[in-house]
Structures are given as structure tokens and as C-alpha cells.
Amino acid sequence: MRRIAAALACVALAGVWASTATAAGGAVTVLYAGSLVNVMEQQIGPAFTKATGYAYSGYGAGSTALANEIKGKLQAGDVFISAAPSVNAALMGQANGGWVTWYGEFAAAPLVIGYSPSSRFASAFRTRPWWQVLPTPGLLLGRTDPVLDPKGRLTIQFIDRASKTLGVPNLFARTLVTANNGDQVFPEETLVGRLEAGQLDAGFFYSIEAKAAHIPFVAPPLGAHYGARYTVTILENGPDPAGALAFVRFLLGPRGSAILRQDGFALLKDGEVGGAPGAVPASIRPLLGTKHARP
């Protein structure tokens, strides 16, 4: 009887703890760059919930598209993670709704060209220069919208720089990577899945996306100058400010950093911090770099 009573007491205590954690935690909504779908939904989100008791709700899309949705009040969230610092500017100041007052860089990942291992062009990617393979007739190439996603803009900048640096004229025309070629453009959050399903032979990704999906890729030397620089901020007037603070502290703290490092992110020990001086919460400031971004 004593054992049964003790067991029931443990169950009761566990129930009290769980209900208390849920009541104290609530739910935290994180709006993030679509290239982070795997790490956010499979790792960071569940680990955050386990560590803090907060429920986690994530939504991924192109960074610029997300900023537009926040600004237009089509998406409400507590935390915003972008793949480019410049995107935050669209949410700063009264004219833009004042959704963001600060942001901090925390990780980076270079732009790469990923290809399907089952593609008929896979052998060519393994043995020939990428600028010779991409223009091959019949090759299905995917990338993101330069209007809605920083990676789409980087792709066009990369092709332009590669054409000049490598001495390969008309690389835009030969690869069909032009701003108005909608046949190559897909939402960031679906690009990996399309390549895995055989709908694409190759695509432009960040290295962390390719590694997470076990997609072989070519890492062009020029790619070191083009890539994601992830930033995080707490949105003003979000549903759960306390939960947002807890999430950012987890993401930038030891456990979040360990997950990111394991997944191949380059952690920025001294990334830039943008926005109004003193706007960063005191408990987060030590977790960010000391460089202040130019206005």
C-alpha cells in the first residue's frame, strides 16, 4: 500500500509540474527564414520546449516575404529570424510599424550548389566545373525569388560575380539565372523537397540546408563571399514577450549554440548588432557580439 501511495504521489507531483510548466510557459511563435526548417522544427523547437516548458510554434518562409507579412499584419509572432541583416530594416521605424528595434547576428552559412545524387547530371557535377554543368540543356535548376528571399538575390549576385571572375561571358543567359525567369523560382521552404523528389536536378542552397538533407553539393570558392548571415530579434508587441526572451536566450545559449554548431553553422562570436543603442534586453546582450551595425 505504501508503494502504491508513493507511486500515486509521484504521478500527482509530475502532473502538477507539467501543468505548472505549461501554464508558466505558454506558447512561443517563431517566424524564421525558410532555410532553417529542419533545424528549427526537428531540433531547436523540441529542445527549447523540453528545456523550458514553453510550447513552440514555428513558421518558415523567405525572409523578405516574412517581413512583408509581419508588416502587413498577416503573420503574428514573438521572434523573427532572418537570413540577412538588411531585412530587419523593413520592420524598423515608425513608418514600418516599429516591429523591430534591434537585431543581432548569430550564425552564418555559405551559398552552395546542391545536386540530386539520382540526377543524370550528378556525375558531371562530381567531375566537371559547375559553370560548365549548369548551362547543360535539359538540366532543371531551382532557386528562390530574389524579391522575396535574400538567397535569391545572392544567387543572382553570385552568378554575376562568377561570370566576371571566371571569365565566362553570358553566364546569366547560359544558366537562365535571370531575374524574370520564373520557371526556376520556388518558395525557399519547398526547394529542398523538390530536389529530393526528383523535380529538380540542382539548386542554390545554403550549406546547412544541403548538409541537413544529405544533398551532395559544390562549394564554389566565390561562395565564401555569398551566404546567409542569420539574425534574431524579439518582435515588438508580440503575444508572449517573456516566452520570446526565453527562446532567444536558449537559441544563443550553450544548448542552442551546440545544436547549431553540430549542424554545420558558423557561429559568429562577434556578429553585428543593429538598431537603437540600448534596445537589446540586458539578459541577451552578453550573448551577442560587440560590433554595432552602421545605420
Topology, pairings included?
Blueprint: H1 2-25, E1 27-33, H2 37-52, E2 55-61, H3 63-71, E3 79-82, E4 102-115, H4 122-127, H5 130-133, E5 141-142, H6 150-165, H7 171-175, H8 188-196, E6 202-206, H9 207-212, E7 217-218, E8 227-234, H10 241-252, H11 254-262, E9 266-267, E10 272-275, E11 291-292
Parallel strand pairs: 1-2, 1-3, 5-6, 10-11
Antiparallel strand pairs: 3-8, 4-6, 4-7, 4-8, 4-9, 4-10
Helix pairs in contact: 2-11
Average pLDDT, to the nearest integer? 88
Q: Rg, please?
A: 22 Å
> How big a fraction of the residues is strand?
15-25%
Percent helix, as a range, is: 25-40%
Q: In the CATH hierarchy, what is the superfamily of the largest domain?
A: Periplasmic binding protein-like II
CATH class of the largest domain: Alpha Beta
CATH architectural arrangement of the largest domain: 3-Layer(aba) Sandwich
Shape: globular
What is the oligomer described by this structure? single chain
Q: Tell me the count of domains.
A: 2
Q: Helix and strand succession?
A: HEHEHEEHHEHHHEHEEHHEEE
Number of strands: 11
Instruction: Provide the low-confidence segments as ranges.
Output: 1-24
Largest sheet: 11 strands, mixed
Distance between the termini: 70 Å
